[in-house]
């Protein structure tokens, strides 16, 4: 039997009662309390569903399926459009992208990230049919996709609320969900982790936008790079090439893309690194040998100049292993 409910946000929740064992995990893990156990799980608040698939992922017998409804596809239909990106800025982004890829040998595109502030005109960027986590959209952009995602295209309640699209669900704000996921030892530790990360005010952002830097349709706020540690090391050095400044990176293993790669560079004006997080490693194709860096766009000219200088001698000599002992 299938129980189906459609909601205004645009998700349908299917529970296969022939498979369901009434274990209650879906009720416990749903960050916004969609389910109540009443002779099996009932979707009593389907209108609150974010389509995050946490319930489906935790169900031991794969009895749950979450499906986007056509209601979600009407997002932003009547919204004012932004002017196209200034050709000079576009050319600058293309050149930055070329230097980054040529000097570092990046496999993937550097990604331009921007947030559409509440009520602001919309850039000409496609809204995906599917719901995605912010980290998944960033990984898709490094492979060439441009994506604009309003709240009802975001599938991760954590990233969506951190980036200011929605209020933070209570189970996340209280730290309760992190304990269920065995990510932290105690509620106190979970609360500290939540407290120490930046978070934008709810509903101050209408959409996230990601695109290959060379194809960005609107001004970037942060450039994100997914690369191997050696490549990230050169970016760190490129940023310091003219100043010698050592970096105070803020990397925790929590909220890799939304906090560490995007929001911290955006709010501090400094580069930041990330080792990835449970969420992005479990839900995207980011390589085990990759990490990330977020660069505030205002630092990009200095990063690119520094990288070009390092690319003349330091990078090729290091890659040639000139100090390798003669075993
Ligand atoms: S998809 Fe997410 S928000 Fe929706 S019912 Fe499942 S756990 Fe709850
Ligand atoms: S997690 Fe799966 S098996 Fe457990 S109550 Fe929910 S639907 Fe049923």
From TrEMBL:
InterPro entries: 4Fe4S_Fe-S-bd (IPR017896), 4Fe4S_Fe_S_CS (IPR017900), DUF169 (IPR003748). Pfam families: DUF169, Fer4_10. The keyword Iron applies. The keyword Iron-sulfur applies. It comes from the Bacteria. Residues 11-40, 44-69 form the 4Fe-4S ferredoxin-type domain. Keywords: Iron, Iron-sulfur, Metal-binding. This is 4Fe-4S ferredoxin-type domain-containing protein.
